[in-house]
Amino acid sequence: IVVFVGSVTIVLAMFSESILMTWTSDVKVALHGSEILSLYAIGYLFCSLSAFPGYIQHAIGDMKYHIQGSAIFLVILLPCLVFGAYFYQAKGAAVAWASVNFLFFLFWTKISHDKLVPLLHSQWLFKRIILPFLPGVLLAWCVKVLTGRLIGPIIHLWQIMLFGAVLILLMAFMAAPVRDKIKSIVWQKLV
User: What string of DSSP letters covers 79-108?
Assistant: First the structure.
């Protein structure tokens, strides 16, 4: 999941201005909406990653922590969204969405993992999330810096799609199941 959701998030977050410019052909919309799009994309990334303990609970047949976590999330998110939207408009709502989802991911997934499958969280976080995600972020940052200098702020849609495909491949090769499969194929060829 992190390969696909992560690569979409990286593209949306890092190239939001170019995407909005390509989509709307309106510089004002692209400039105003790019930060909002980036924050919502980042929030959805953490929202999707926070669902994994729920999958474990569903497999076990005990949804108690999922229901508790969802209730806590709702009680925190709604006032933050109202506050952010009321005082800071769309940008405030986007900051609230990204922040609450990040905090929920940071704390509730650890609590859930520790209660359901002790010692899983650190390994899952590093091997399944950070290891595939970090190279994608670094590559996107390098591409953004280079394209910003070489061709200006507008990257055409086909370039964004091509970059997204390259990003998916890079992150897939960094994901543990793909790495393990490649190792086993190489090992079989060598032995």
Answer: HHHHHHHHHHHHHHHHHHHHHHHHHHHHHH
Summarize pLDDT for 26-42 with one digit per residue, the tens. 889 999 999 999 999 99
The pLDDT tens digits for 80-123 are 999 999 999 999 999 999 999 999 999 999 999 999 898 899 99
- Token duo for residue 82: 């109202």
Q: Is 66 helix (H, G, I), strand (E, B) or coil?
A: helix
Query: SS3 breakdown of the chain: % helix, strand, coil, rounded to 5?
Result: 90, 0, 10
- Helix 64-116 crosses helix 52-60 at what angle (to 10 degrees)? 100
Is 57 within 8 Å of 69 (Cβ atoms)?
Answer: no
Q: Which residues contact 31 (CB under 8 A, 6 or more apart)?
A: 17
Q: What is the pLDDT of residues 134-160, one digit of tens each?
A: 999 999 888 888 876 444 455 567 778
Work out whether the CA dihedral 149, 154, 158, 160 comes out positive or negative: positive
